[in-house]
Write a structure and sequence with these properties.
The protein has about 130 residues and is α+β, with helices and mostly antiparallel strands. About 40% of the residues lie in helices and about 10% in strands. It has one domain.
Length: about 130
């Protein structure tokens, strides 16, 4: 493994509190070890899944920042909400389940029908 760029970026981590509340910063920047800690699994589990996801075509990580190279493949050193979300659906842990439930809740909120109140001026015939 060869480090291409050596500056360390400040991370903005997702956290899950003891009571199951999820905090997501405006811009998520997490290293694999932080993602492993979030989901309560070992770092090699996260790294293996990070390598698998692009091969499956599910997600293509952003390689415009810090990267490592594995042969001809470049892998970012840190990841955003897209990768964390994709990993949540591959990892089997209580914390990943909490995160998946949060994702489902947010999706349902975003696609729920919106109620509109439409007003018509008096005297308009809609027939």
């Amino acid at each position: 493994m060869k480090l291409i760029r050596t500056t360390i970026m400040k991370t903005n981590k997702i956290t899950i509190s003891d009571n199951g509340k999820i905090y997501i910063p405006a811009q998520v920047i997490m290293y694999p070890v932080e993602i492993a800690d979030l989901f309560g699994v070992y770092t090699p589990t996260i790294i293996a899944n990070i390598k698998t996801l692009p091969k499956s075509g599910i997600i293509n990580p952003d390689i415009s920042g810090e990267v490592t190279s594995f042969g001809n493949t470049f892998t970012p050193l840190h990841f955003g909400i897209d990768m964390v979300t994709a990993l949540a659906f591959r990892i089997h842990s209580p914390e990943a389940l909490i995160f998946r439930q949060w994702v489902f809740k947010r999706v349902q909120e975003d696609i729920s029908p919106t109620k509109y109140i439409i007003g018509f001026p008096t005297g308009i015939n809609l027939n």
